[in-house]
UniProtKB/TrEMBL annotation, chain A:
<feature type="domain" description="ABC-2 type transporter transmembrane">
    <location>
        <begin position="48"/>
        <end position="222"/>
    </location>
</feature>
<dbReference type="InterPro" id="IPR000412">
    <property type="entry name" value="ABC_2_transport"/>
</dbReference>
<dbReference type="InterPro" id="IPR013525">
    <property type="entry name" value="ABC2_TM"/>
</dbReference>
<protein>
    <submittedName>
        <fullName>Transport permease protein</fullName>
    </submittedName>
</protein>
<feature type="transmembrane region" description="Helical">
    <location>
        <begin position="114"/>
        <end position="139"/>
    </location>
</feature>
<keyword id="KW-1133">Transmembrane helix</keyword>
<feature type="transmembrane region" description="Helical">
    <location>
        <begin position="180"/>
        <end position="199"/>
    </location>
</feature>
<feature type="transmembrane region" description="Helical">
    <location>
        <begin position="36"/>
        <end position="55"/>
    </location>
</feature>
<dbReference type="GO" id="GO:0046677">
    <property type="term" value="P:response to antibiotic"/>
</dbReference>
Automatic annotation (TrEMBL), chain B:
<protein>
    <submittedName>
        <fullName>Spermidine/putrescine ABC transporter ATP-binding protein</fullName>
    </submittedName>
</protein>
<dbReference type="InterPro" id="IPR017871">
    <property type="entry name" value="ABC_transporter-like_CS"/>
</dbReference>
<dbReference type="InterPro" id="IPR050763">
    <property type="entry name" value="ABC_transporter_ATP-binding"/>
</dbReference>
<keyword id="KW-1278">Translocase</keyword>
<feature type="domain" description="ABC transporter">
    <location>
        <begin position="6"/>
        <end position="231"/>
    </location>
</feature>
<keyword id="KW-0067">ATP-binding</keyword>
<keyword id="KW-1003">Cell membrane</keyword>
<dbReference type="Pfam" id="PF00005">
    <property type="entry name" value="ABC_tran"/>
</dbReference>
<keyword id="KW-0547">Nucleotide-binding</keyword>
Length: 255, 304
């Protein structure tokens, strides 16, 4: 049972930040994989919407290209589901378990934790969006790929904005309240966010009020119509990301 | 000369109107082990949180390894090992995952398998945290605190929820830390833990320092409080009790118990009285106060 003398002789030091971030991102992804059923569930609702609204006449969508309207909306919904709802609930409970406090008492810094969480979410979002897009293609969606890069760009911005909002509400509310609020917002956005049917037409103001509708519209413009992303949507999503991440960084609590 | 490991001066912590810590000062020298001893609610954890940089004191100051624990948080963290009172781990991660994660944060980590062995956790390396018992979770938290080879370790109730064997293992580990020159600030409500581990004990009660010193000093300050003398039965001990300010009882014939604050002079006087009475003294025993007696006397006094 004994340990050689000198085993615990202090030799403190921080590993290179790159190594720290790699471990933390791997842990975030490992834990997500352990709760595989949560990932499937997070994709279940978007998948149902895709098949339900995309292949039947259950809802009225503008225009003739049903899948061209529904699939980009479903992709945007998935990003929100993972980056906002899932992230907020997970982070809320991690705070409840004292995990964030424990990480705060380690060489992982606050920016390091925020970065790792966002990076892990980006990986997850990429996989989910790819799977759903492939399902869309399988049932007949024919996306335009000429504007793929701007489509990826707005998706990264939307992910960042949702991550910021998720960390923000998980910092301000208790875990149970966070779960309820994140779920409620998800359901409201699912109904009014312009996914299954057109969002209330608020013109350009809508781009700034509903990031989900703005993101969905940008994906339709690019992937369905092969057109550029409107400047107001770029501006809206950039603002949402900047404001949400700044607020999250300021309000973020380890405890 | 290097600065102290921990230097706390007149720290006050308030939660609204409640004063949890009310002007506490203490110093942990480099390589020293200091135990904060007190009941639940005495303010131990609040004080520890100030030292860990999780809470800014409402008054007073704390220096940890010569730095400000809040302002220099990021610089200090790699040098500290922190064991929280409970939890702090992803419930779905295994013991091995967690320890390797924290090891990967350090420049020169300890061997994780050695540490798991040392704490008797090797067989739980693939067990998820939520399925470990309370004592096993505590030992894992201790391993996480030590894996980065810190200079200074904060242990909040390190043996809470542990069985006797695990507690022994933990105590041996703290002894190894001392031998290897790691500084330790620990909180406990266990008197034997403070007495056997710490170089220095600070007894906290209701947010203030009730007493401080080495375990020996704390008990010696209280002195000998009981003298047992065996002699002929039925001696006229009422005279002894009247002369010295002591209480004398003879529960068993020939066994006298003399209770009171007995310094050297008083003991000489007691034995002198037996000599003067012409008694044949066949045995003398003293009982010194334990840390427990000191502690109970202090905390009972403050409760009044």
């Amino acid at each position: 049972m004994s340990t050689d003398a000198g085993t615990f002789t202090p030799a403190p030091g921080r590993a290179p930040m790159r190594a720290i971030l790699r471990s933390q991102i791997r842990m975030e992804l490992l834990l997500t994989a352990r709760r595989g059923e949560a990932v499937v569930l997070a994709m279940g609702v978007p998948l149902l919407v895709l098949l339900g609204a995309g292949l039947t006449r259950a809802t009225n969508v503008p225009g003739d290209d049903r899948l061209g309207f529904v699939v980009p909306g479903v992709l945007a919904l998935t990003v929100m589901s993972t980056a906002f709802t899932g992230q907020a609930i997970t982070t809320g409970y991690e705070r409840g378990y004292g995990v964030l406090k424990r990480l705060g008492a380690s060489p992982l810094t606050r920016p390091g934790l925020l970065f790792s969480k966002t990076a892990a979410i980006l990986c997850l979002v990429a996989v989910q969006v790819l799977v759903l897009a492939l399902v869309g293609v399988a049932v007949g969606w024919r996306p335009e790929l000429s504007e793929l890069l701007p489509a990826i760009g707005v998706t990264v911005l939307a992910t960042a904005a949702y991550c910021g909002l998720a960390l923000l509400i998980a910092s301000v509310l208790r875990p149970e309240t966070t779960t309820a609020a994140a779920t409620l917002i998800y359901v409201l956005m699912l109904a009014a966010g312009g996914i299954m049917f057109a969002a209330p037409d608020l013109g350009t103001a809508g781009h700034f009020l509903l990031p989900l509708a703005a993101h969905a519209e940008a994906l339709r413009d690019t992937l369905t119509n092969g057109a550029a992303v409107p400047a107001s949507i770029w501006l809206s999503l950039t603002l949402w990301a900047a404001v949400a991440l700044t607020a999250a960084a300021r309000k973020f609590r380890w405890e | 000369m290097r600065e102290a490991a921990v230097e706390v001066r007149d720290v006050v912590v308030r939660y609204g109107d409640v004063v949890a810590v009310d002007g506490v000062s203490l110093t942990v020298p480099r390589g020293g082990i200091l135990a904060l001893l007190g009941n639940n609610g005495a303010g131990k954890t609040s004080l520890l949180q100030v030292c860990e940089g999780f809470r800014r004191p409402d008054a007073g100051s704390a220096r940890v390894l010569g730095r400000d624990p809040v302002a220099d948080h990021d610089d200090l963290m790699p040098r500290l090992g922190i064991m929280l009172q409970s939890g702090g781990v992803y419930p779905w991660a295994t013991a091995g995952d967690i320890l390797r994660l924290f090891a990967s944060f350090a420049a020169r980590p300890l061997d994780t398998d050695m540490l798991l062995d040392r704490l008797g956790l090797r067989k739980f390396a693939k067990t998820t945290f939520r399925r470990l018992s309370g004592g096993e979770q505590q030992r894992l938290s201790l391993a996480v605190a030590l894996v980065g080879r810190p200079e200074l370790v904060f242990l909040d109730e390190p043996t809470a929820g542990m069985d006797v064997g695990a507690r022994q293992t933990t105590w041996e580990l703290v002894e190894s830390l001392r031998a290897d020159g790691v500084s330790v600030l620990l909180t406990t409500h266990l008197l034997d833990e403070a007495e056997s581990l710490a170089d220095h004990v600070v007894i906290m009660d209701n947010g203030v320092v009730a007493a401080t010193g080495t375990p020996a000093e704390l008990t010696a300050a209280a002195g000998i409080d009981l003298l047992q003398v065996r002699a002929e039965p039925a001696l006229p001990v009422a005279g002894l009790a009247a002369r010295l300010d002591v209480k004398v009882t003879e529960d068993t014939p020939g066994e006298y118990a003399i209770a009171g604050s007995l310094d050297t002079e008083a003991i000489a006087a007691v034995l002198g009285w037996f000599a003067a009475a012409g008694a044949q003294v066949t045995a003398v025993n003293t009982r010194r106060r334990t840390l427990e007696d000191v502690y109970l006397a202090l905390t009972a006094g403050a409760a009044r």
